[in-house]
């Protein structure tokens, strides 16, 4: 039923620890989730609000309500738990993002995404850390050098969840894939930075340590990706070989969910970037596994993953909203409320500057490598990308709690100020920046739908170019594509064969499109025969492709009868 | 992703309490779940094994493995948590049972189910309690009178989960609905009995207390049912009025899940029988809500609920299996292992006798009220019903821990013996009785498929009887049924109109079929126009019935394209 939800709630220890109140807390939380969904639905057509902000505001209101009922005494109203967030709420969100992402768009912009996600986050981290060292000391905040660097890592971590809410994959596919892709890579970078800051001897930073950090990042990125890909391929192989659907659709759904979650947990266990792992696991699963299961399982997994992700997102914002009233910390900082607000202001400014410091220069660099003006990121788009990634969310919150409290508690004034400032930054950036993003996108990119479509899809003129790289293999390739097309009119299969570029330079040979072409060939020749995928599961007896739509309709009717 | 699973695992505290091992424990558990699913799939055609037994055995093996690795030191290997079981694992299982149950079959046998579930459980409770008082004292076990009565309640609680696994709803619908229905009502009775034993002053039992208990049961049964029905109707009404599907299928799925879970938690909060509540919520949701959502949501909810239930079931058996090696208690009883085995034997015997003591007499009573020989429960069926309800499972385990330990710990020898004996009874009854049930059903009811079909469906001869109760309203009724049939060829709608019995006696007037007829009329006239349901949601713009199958196929193709 309420999957993640229920269990996790128990950790919140609302008011007291007894069973009765734990049940009451879960009941309250589930009720609030229902309210958020209904209100979110009613506000769907509203141009300002989105579900995150609704949940955040409902959370804050409920927090105030509980505080008033308990007579302001429940200082431990809610304890923010990093475990709850990282182990139970984040995996479904990121997995679903990988599962539903437009893979073509994502891999075409891969170099820009890596540039923003890795180098950009590093720049942002440096700017925020240096700014914090320079500015915070002036307003009577004394932190160690390690803590300043941790602040940099905390506020360099963008909120991928909120990005998913403010940008629309269908309306602005380029921006969506850039900002969201950056967010995923950003996570790997943040993890490396945050762990590095906590583990390395930071009193003397030199080139060796910098190289070590870079090597660490590469190792983390590659191993995390491989783990996710392996988990995805394993699920595809197991389902293709054993053909679960013969006995039960439920086993297919269960094994997909469990293997995806397993990849996340294994990654956590090995101290890798679990977000990267589960993201790539989602991509692989949607490319292979999803095509190996029955029609019913396809519909079920697609919507179940989306629903889980949706509920987890609302849950997080509701939780962050309720958590904002952490009376214990607010009491400690109440004497220096002005300082806390100043710190929040400084941090918000640094977040703005830190992001600007890499979006504009790196966009310029990225534009240099692109020839077609349509592929370049113009200034208006740069502003949108800059703005859409400003939100700080539960990741920052979780990291701040990890750095400045010991299991949620602190008595040190400066640490309490850091926690309350983080809360203010998260609330302000999510609500204010979040509210402005939708109208901003509409203002800056008024015909965004048209514009991005022009950029994202292959230019129509290139359709007539003969692919010179094909040589004698053209026939067999056409065969393969023909087969793909026969199994469903998908834009991917029909687009690629026609768009292999002229090999007029080495750059073109290594361009994403050529790479994509070779990948397709490899995929069709080696991967799909083993792991399944669209058009490659026709020989298993009783497999999905054998079963006609007619059969599916029969199933649906049978299900209706069973249920009555 | 792994919804329920993950979070709950943290409570297990495998080996130590640090984050690292908690992650390791979750990883291990998810891996085991995957293994159970794959092995269960491979053993599907095996006539002896089922998924429960597989999971139980894998659990025990893993427990042994961990014990050996830790050098026998991890006495607190796993702590059985009632919360984990009652709050997170049981709801999806029981809800799904209500959601997928054959409603017609269930309500037709309602009186027999109530007889077995309420009176039967009481008889079983009395037999086991008296037997325990008489026999256990002879082998040097000294418990208070309250504890003996608690033992009666603990072992009168049948395991509905295991029943679902050994009986097949399609092959033996009558037996399935009787045994499973009894299990659900049994839960309400057990809760009343167990709570009564813990709260009432049991030193002087008199008629007032007995009446009080009976009133308590009635109150519990009625309020729990009403709560479930209201939650189900609320979900139907909200989804019908707001038409979530217009914006997002995911909201529909989420709201159905959350409202179902909310009904369970509210019931827990008010100390009602949450199992009864969520069971009826499932029935109402499948009757109304399910018909108000989009086709995608229908497929998704049907399979998601089944998958969640399936995973939760495996989880429970895996957990019970691992929990069997509760070294702390085994150490305490090691000096009196013989006593513990004797106690287990006595309890197993009492369970056998206690169930026999009500199945055979009450079946005789039930047969007296039936006229047709086809509707009577013959001796072979009585034996099957008796045997299929012998398994004791996680409910008994949870109640035993509640009674004989304080948050999982105990140092009293007799209490430890009770825990280990419960574990033995649960393992033995699940594995041995469970293994025998499938072959037994096949042996006793060789043509069970044919037989039960004859009993469950209306006799063919009665099809020609004119329903005399219809009077002038016959036309409008035919209209209604016609509409229902037009919306899908369902056995329910087409069967009922023809089978209203002759009103040759008052008994016939009040017979389940007549009641069913009036219910259908009421349902069609008042309920469905308000809450939707099959054939009653054609006027909402863009509602499921408007969207053709063709549209659905388009959606599926679109989804395929999106995912690639």
Feature tags:
564 residues, mainly alpha, disordered N terminus, globular, 73% helix, homodimer
Low-confidence stretches of chain A: 1-18, 448-503, 538-550
Helix content of chain A: over 70%
Mean pLDDT of chain A: 74
For the largest interface, the chains and their residue counts are: A-B, 95 and 94 residues
- Main beta sheet strand tally, sense and closure of chain A: none
Strand content of the residues of chain A, in percent? under 5%
The tally of strands of chain A reads 0
Task: Provide the succession of SSEs of chain A.
Answer: HHHHHHHHHHHHHHHHHHHHHHHH
Distance between the termini of chain A: 21 Å
Short structural description:
With 564 residues, chain A is mainly α. Helices cover 73% and strands 0% of the residues of chain A. Chain A starts with a helix and ends with a helix.
Describe the protein.
- Chains A, B: It catalyses: K(+)(in) + H(+)(out) = K(+)(out) + H(+)(in); Na(+)(in) + H(+)(out) = Na(+)(out) + H(+)(in).
- Chains A, B: It is found in: Membrane.
- Chains A, B: Keywords: Ion transport, Membrane, Potassium, Potassium transport, Sodium, Sodium transport, Transmembrane, Transmembrane helix, Transport.
- The structure is a homodimer.
- The first copy, chain A, has about 575 residues and is mainly α.
- Helices cover about 75% and strands about 0% of the residues of chain A.
- Chain A has 24 helices and no strands.
- In chain A, helix 11 runs antiparallel to helix 12 (about 275-290).
- The radius of gyration of chain A is 25 Å and the shape is globular.
- Chains A and B meet through helix 1, helix 2, helix 4, helix 11 and helix 12 of A and helix 1, helix 2, helix 4, helix 11 and helix 12 of B.
């Amino acid at each position: 039923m309420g999957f993640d939800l229920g269990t996790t709630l128990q950790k919140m220890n609302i008011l007291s620890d007894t069973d009765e109140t734990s049940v009451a807390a879960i009941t309250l939380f589930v009720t609030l989730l229902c309210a958020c969904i209904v209100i979110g639905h009613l506000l769907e057509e509203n141009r300002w609000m989105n579900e995150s902000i609704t949940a955040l505001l409902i959370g804050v209101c409920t927090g105030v309500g509980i505080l008033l009922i308990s007579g302001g005494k429940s200082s431990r109203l809610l304890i923010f738990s990093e475990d709850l967030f990282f182990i139970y709420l984040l995996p479904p969100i990121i997995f679903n993002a990988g599962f539903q992402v437009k893979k073509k768009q994502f891999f075409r912009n891969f170099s820009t995404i890596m540039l923003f996600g890795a180098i950009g986050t590093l720049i942002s981290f440096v700017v925020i850390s240096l700014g914090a060292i320079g500015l915070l000391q002036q307003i009577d905040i004394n932190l160690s050098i390690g803590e300043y660097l941790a602040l940099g890592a905390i506020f360099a971590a963008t909120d991928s969840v909120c990005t998913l809410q403010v940008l629309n994959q269908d309306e602005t596919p380029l921006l969506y894939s850039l900002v969201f892709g950056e967010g995923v890579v950003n996570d790997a970078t943040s993890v490396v930075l945050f762990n590095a800051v906590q583990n390395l001897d930071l009193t003397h930073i030199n080139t060796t340590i910098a190289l070590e950090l870079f090597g660490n990042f590469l190792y983390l990125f590659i191993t995390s990706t491989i783990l996710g890909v392996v988990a995805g391929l394993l699920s595809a192989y197991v389902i293709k070989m054993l053909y679960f659907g013969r006995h039960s659709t439920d086993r297919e759904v269960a094994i997909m969910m469990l293997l995806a979650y397993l990849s996340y947990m294994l990654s956590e266990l090995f101290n890798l970037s679990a977000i990267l792992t589960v993201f790539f696991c989602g991509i692989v699963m949607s490319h292979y596994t999803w095509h190996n299961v029955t029609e019913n399982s396809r519909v079920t997994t697609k919507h179940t993953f989306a629903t889980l992700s949706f509920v987890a997102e609302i849950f997080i914002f509701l939780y962050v909203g309720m958590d904002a009233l952490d009376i214990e910390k607010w009491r400690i900082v109440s004497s220096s409320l002005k300082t806390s607000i100043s710190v929040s202001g400084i941090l918000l400014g640094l977040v703005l500057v830190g992001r600007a410091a890499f979006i504009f220069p790196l966009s310029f660099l990225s534009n240099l490598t692109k020839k077609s003006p349509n592929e370049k990121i113009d200034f208006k788009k740069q502003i949108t990308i800059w703005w859409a990634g400003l939100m700080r969310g539960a990741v920052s919150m979780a990291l701040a709690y990890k750095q400045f409290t010991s299991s949620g508690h602190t008595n040190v004034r400066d640490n309490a100020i850091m926690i309350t400032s983080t809360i203010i930054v998260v609330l302000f950036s999510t609500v204010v920046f979040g509210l402005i993003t939708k109208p901003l996108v509409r203002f800056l990119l008024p015909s965004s739908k048209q514009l991005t479509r022009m950029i994202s899809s292959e230019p129509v003129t290139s359709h007539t170019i003969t692919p010179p790289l094909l040589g004698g293999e053209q026939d067999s390739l056409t065969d393969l594509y023909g087969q793909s097309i026969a199994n469903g009119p998908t834009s991917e299969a029909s687009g690629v064969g026609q768009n292999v570029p002229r090999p007029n330079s080495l750059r073109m040979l290594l361009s994403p499109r050529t790479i994509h072409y070779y990948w397709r060939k490899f995929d069709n020749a080696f991967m799909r025969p083993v792991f399944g995928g669209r058009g490659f599961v026709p020989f298993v007896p009783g497999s999905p492709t054998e079963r006609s739509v007619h059969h599916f309709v029969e199933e649906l009717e049978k299900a209706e009868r069973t249920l009555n």
